[in-house]
Amino acid sequence: MAKAAHTTALQRIAAWLSGPNARIAVIWCVLSLIFIGSGFQGLMRGQFPDPDDALRLVQIRDLLAGQSWWDVTQYRIDPVTGTQMHWSRLVDLPLALLIGGLTPLLGASLAETVTLIAVPLLTLGVVLFIIGGLARRWLGVEAMTFACLILGLLAPLVFQLQPMRIDHHGWQIVMVAAALWGVAHNSAIRGGCMAGFAMALGLSISLEILPLVAATGIMLALRWLRDHAGRLWLASYMVSLAAGLTVIFLTTRGLGDLEQYCDAVSPAHLAFFGITALGTAVIALLPALPRWAWFLSFACVGALGIAVFGSFSPTCLTTPFAQLDPVVRDYWYVHISEGRPLWEQELASALPMAFQLLVGLAAAIMLAVKGKPEQRLWWVEYAFLLLASIALALLVWRAAAFAALLAAIPLGWLVTKLLGQLRAALALAGKLLASGAIIVVLLPSSPVSLYTALAPRDLPAGNQSGAQSGGEHPISPTVADARCDLRGQAAKLNRLPAGTILAPLDAGPSILLESHHSVVATSHHRAEMAMRDVIVTFVGPIEDARAAAKQRGAGYILMCSDLAEANLYARGNPDGLAALLIAGDTPDWLEPLPLDGQPDQPAEFGIWKIR
């Protein structure tokens, strides 16, 4: 009996290893090793992909050090009042649990390193299994395999799921994938609830997926419009979405902070989704309505929801950045390239990605037209969601990650078809054509890279003005590429008495992470007026700079002179403080502070005490 049970267990293991889930697991392992290998130097230097990742770790450390779960204030940003972050504790939770659990075993430093690698790769694994499962269900194992492999070739996804990328974007990608799984479910109630709760989690993490929440709702409304029996999809989706948002709000924000924020789920948002969910449920309980009555009913529900939302928070009827101070907008917001539209990106890298997304959309449309009859309606819906995500990406390029997620499945199917043509082609020309098409689908930047190598000066460069993404000039790098080695030098700041440092906004997270100092501001808009004062200090009249810094309680000025942000300030006023410090012309009210006197201190890094 025992031997038979043992044999059965081995057979099950062998069956699993030969099955599709094992194939996905292998792809996850391979992609994880590639991600770790390609970013190994950054891992060894402890260099985060983005300043937000460093600040996320600061928030985790504060939580583990005893800061309240309900309190998301960064007390070392604008330390006179502190700065309340709009970030959700949902993203902090897995990071804090893993670091807290591993610290007794590995020590704090190694526990953080393991977590910084493991959590992003965990999100990658979840995405692979969801997308792989959907692709296998609709298109078969071969398409599943290529869809999963393609996920590792889509640049927006790779950036958000790479090791040390611990900010919220990876988990939002997971939630969009989970919502996609829900709307593809066989059960309207279970599928709708799954999609609604996944979107509630995603919205609670960040409001930036709100357009996708709306697009999913529209798609489910069309199911209802086609067939009254499909009303349960939208009803369960809206009720689950509203209930999920409320529960998550209570468990992460509580009742101690009922302020109306435009950049995070607040009571006004809960009221809107509660009203629209209740209205949808009531309409679903009614007998089938004529179409005009159906549209009128939903128009009334939507209008009531918007009216209540507007009465709670009228300023939030526009975008969260509509009311930004003009100085902050001109020197910060318009230079965050990932938050800007496609046409303001570096076109050499953005256009191939956009082409790949459009090819994915074309493949989804082909499946809707020529796919299996019983699946064509699903592919029409899928193409609609992909189109909505591409439209969002065109307006906010960071959202290309969501479009890439959806494009992976139809791209995987297209590659299988092209491979079939390659195998079937008898003539060399046919094989070359199919091979070339596969390369262009998988690596659309290859022709651009070849063209760049042959004629680099003729390639359109697009708008490269992003201070947070490389600057207006290629010689102005991001924090990750700056020669001043900001994170390494920031650790040396502990040799100075604790104080408040006025530094470029993107330098702030590294200072907070590696030292005991505070900063006047970081690149986070809730500290808008502190951000303005930093910018004005660097670009305003030099005779006003000292007073502006002192007014914010700054005791030190820090400059990383080859940052894109610093050079943006210098161009803004060639006679301002930033330009003078970059040129080595130090005002007499600043006292240079060599941190160690060693030759390894980069010339691009400087710290001064305000006299």
Distance between the termini: 85 Å
Task: Please tell me the overall pLDDT.
Answer: 88
The number of E-state strands comes to 7
Helix content: 55-70%
Low-confidence stretches: 458-476
Q: Main sheet? A: 5 strands, mixed
Regarding quaternary structure, what we see is: single chain
Strand content: under 5%
The gyration radius over C-alpha positions equals: 26 Å
Characterization of the model:
The chain is mainly alpha-helical and 611 residues long. It has 26 helices and seven strands. The chain has helices at residues 2-17, 20-38, 40-45, 51-64, 89-106, 108-139, 141-151, 155-161, 169-183, 188-205, 210-226, 231-252, 267-285, 291-312, 326-331, 347-370, 376-395, 400-424, 428-442, 445-454, 486-492, 508-514, 528-539, 542-551, 564-572, 577-583, and strands spanning 73-74, 83-84, 500-502, 518-519, 556-560, 590-592, 605-610. The strands form two sheets. A five-stranded mixed β-sheet has the order 4-3-5-7-6, sandwiched between helices. Strand 1 and strand 2 (83-84) form a beta hairpin. Helix 11 (210-226) runs antiparallel to helix 17 (376-395) and helix 18 (400-424) runs antiparallel to helix 19. The radius of gyration is 26 Å and the shape is globular. Mean pLDDT is 88; it is low at 458-476.
Brief write-up:
The chain is mainly alpha-helical and 611 residues long. The protein is built from 26 helices and seven strands.
Quickly list its features.
mainly alpha
Helix-strand layout with pairing:
Elements (H helix, E strand, L loop, with lengths): L1 H16 L2 H19 L1 H6 L5 H14 L8 E2 L8 E2 L4 H18 L1 H32 L1 H11 L3 H7 L7 H15 L4 H18 L4 H17 L4 H22 L14 H19 L5 H22 L13 H6 L15 H24 L5 H20 L4 H25 L3 H15 L2 H10 L31 H7 L7 E3 L5 H7 L3 E2 L8 H12 L2 H10 L4 E5 L3 H9 L4 H7 L6 E3 L12 E6 L1
Parallel strand pairs: 3-4, 3-5
Antiparallel strand pairs: 1-2, 5-7, 6-7
Helix pairs in contact: 2-6, 2-7, 4-5, 4-22, 5-6, 6-7, 6-9, 6-18, 7-18, 8-18, 9-10, 10-12, 11-12, 11-17, 12-13, 13-14, 16-17, 16-18, 17-18, 18-19, 21-22, 23-24, 25-26
